[in-house]
Design goal:
Strand content: under 5%
Distance between the termini: 142 Å
Order of helices and strands: H
Largest sheet: none
Radius of gyration: 43 Å
Shape: rod-shaped
Structural class: mainly alpha
């Protein structure tokens, strides 16, 4: 068996010639083949971020509701205190009808 010598110049020319055609074809094929996969990954991460944002907003709403309930309780107590002070300022000698009681 005889081993023939390799012509390096022809081998490089053939590899470069094939690469000129195959690299763009491989790139276009990869672009169209991976495009749905990349879009799906993008949507997945967008939805995950959206879910996190929704959870944050739900926590904020719960805290706001608690704060509003606390403020409502405070306003109710202030109203009771105001009514109590009005009753004190009116004096002990006024009856439930608003008229003066006769001293006994």
């Amino acid at each position: 068996m005889q081993i023939l010598p390799i012509d390096l110049t022809s081998l490089v020319a053939v590899i470069l010639g094939i690469s000129v055609v195959l690299i763009p074809v491989a790139g276009l094929t990869a672009r169209y083949a991976f495009k749905p996969f990349v879009e799906t990954l993008g949507r997945f991460f967008d939805h995950r971020e959206l879910d996190e944002n929704v959870q944050i907003l739900e926590r904020r709403m719960a805290l706001l509701e608690q704060h509003i309930e606390a403020l409502d309780g405070t306003v109710r107590r202030l109203g009771e205190v105001t009514d109590f002070h009005r009753a004190l300022e009116a004096g002990p000698d006024t009856g439930p009808s608003g008229g003066r009681r006769q001293p006994s």
